[in-house]
Amino acid sequence: MPRPIWKGAISFGLVTIPVNLYSAIERRETLSFNLLHKKDHARIQNKRFCSEEGVEVPWSEVEKGYEYAKGQYVVVTDEDFEKARVPATQTFDIRAFVPAHEVADLYFDEPYYLEPNGKAGVKAYALLRDALKDTGRIGVGTVVLRQREHVAGIEPSGDALVLSMMRFAHEIRSPNDLDLPKAGEGWTKKEMDLAHRLIETLADKWKPEDFRDTYTEVLRKAIEAKVEGKELELPAEERPRPVANLMKALEESLARKEGAKAPGRAAKTPQKRRGGKRAA
Fold this sequence. Notes:
With 280 residues, the protein is α+β, with helices and mostly antiparallel strands. It is 22% helix and 25% strand. Among the domains are: 6-26 and 85-170, Ku70, Chain: A, Domain 2; 186-207 and 246-280, no CATH class. Helix 3 (189-201) runs parallel beside helix 5 (246-260).
């Protein structure tokens, strides 16, 4: 059983639910690399050099600075950082219950599982979880973790309540400067009908286990082969070409998919994400 990252409470109105917080993400083993000298394969070391004197600087002589103008710095001390820390609280106070479909996916960041802490919180936990399912809403508020305040949202996922760290509005870049086609323009009705049919041929339930990190798997095999003095041969990469005729591409794709589909197999309806369609 993993140890909780945080113990506190969810509150809305006069209701308080004691909870434990656990990471919902398992950090798998990742491949790490070191920089080597090409000549003798010796490891390269990163050292701290003073740009003014050109000498190596020990940690005891290093301090943090903020560049407020080109080449102009103000030193920020540990005491300054302490003053900026948000006082830790043990409560996630839900400020609003908002429709799930109004919150774009790009606002959501790292998820955490919540469990009731003790029998006293079980009934209220189940009530909040099922009420959020019934109403299609998420609870939004702020929480202090690791001495930093985060905006976060609570939503149901199966039998669990999930607390997801969210991004503040000022962290989201606007797409207004991008050269994007307008909604509802640039295509014909026939092309849209074909696109709908093509999507239906690929309709299925969400099965996350079907998706794997093939890049890391192949890279690991290549490394293991080199350790054994072998070279892993990979098939030539086929790069897709830009579509010259959209209608033709849709028709050929549809013919290929419908031909490969087993007779009598009905298309499955995709499951909705996060309790419903998110805002764009």
